[in-house]
Amino acid sequence: MHRMQTQSEEMQQTKIYEQVVARIRDLIDSGQIRPGDKLPSERNLAEIFKVSRSSLREAIRALQESGVLESRRGDGTYVSLPPGSDLLAPFAEVMTQQRVRLWQLFQFRLAIEPQIARLAAQERTEGHLEALRHVLELQEKELGNGEKTGYADLHFHQLIAMATGNPLFVDVVTRAESKLAETRNEPLQSEERQKASLQSHRDIFTTIMQRDADAAEEAMRTHLLLVSKLIFSEAK
Questions:
Q1: Element (H, E) at 77
Q2: I want to staple 12 with a disulfide (CB 3.0 to 4.6 A). Which of 58, 153, 211, 221 is the partner?
Q3: Structural domains of the chain sorted by starting position, each given as residue range(s) with its CATH number in brackets
Q4: Contact present, 153 and 4 (Cβ < 8 Å)
Q5: How far, CA to CA in Å, does 159 sit from each of 18, 127, 167, 191?
Q6: pTM of the model
């Protein structure tokens, strides 16, 4: 899917959250850290859990919201639950809330982006097509090299918004995409999803190149529905 990755910090992948929660539970239950103890630095935790610092930040934020951890301004992050407490119960509630927000975001995109694609098919120039070709080539190259296609993904949708000639659409798409950064991270950015995204991007490009507004609208809707289906099935 589109560059839906690294643009916002509102949610993190389920598997990474679970890994961090499980590790913290182990440390508490084993007595290595106790309620009131200060956690290691962000850099050290990222190395311990083998996750990116941005992923760790989001996981810690979720644990703070669920009452497992407590952040003290200018001091650090502390454990606030005693050994034996059910760390996963409050965490599961947070994850449910996050999935609801993610689905709401997809509903918004489904309402606006197909119309943007329709207008892009009507207003695009040869310059816009050339830029879209370039980003599709980049996405294909990244996928072929086993790299994450987050940058190309996002840029593709921004370029379509640019092709409308209306800067407000660019701003809307960029803001919406930025809320989906976490969906482009490791577990949720499967090879299947990236391949499906690339193919549907090609379909959208073809309709815009042909100035087929109806087909462009439908291709974008199909793409978003496919991506949302893959995301929510992989997040279970």
A1: strand 76-79
A2: 58
A3: 14-89 (1.10.10.10), 98-234 (1.20.120.530)
A4: yes
A5: 36, 10, 11, 24
A6: 0.58
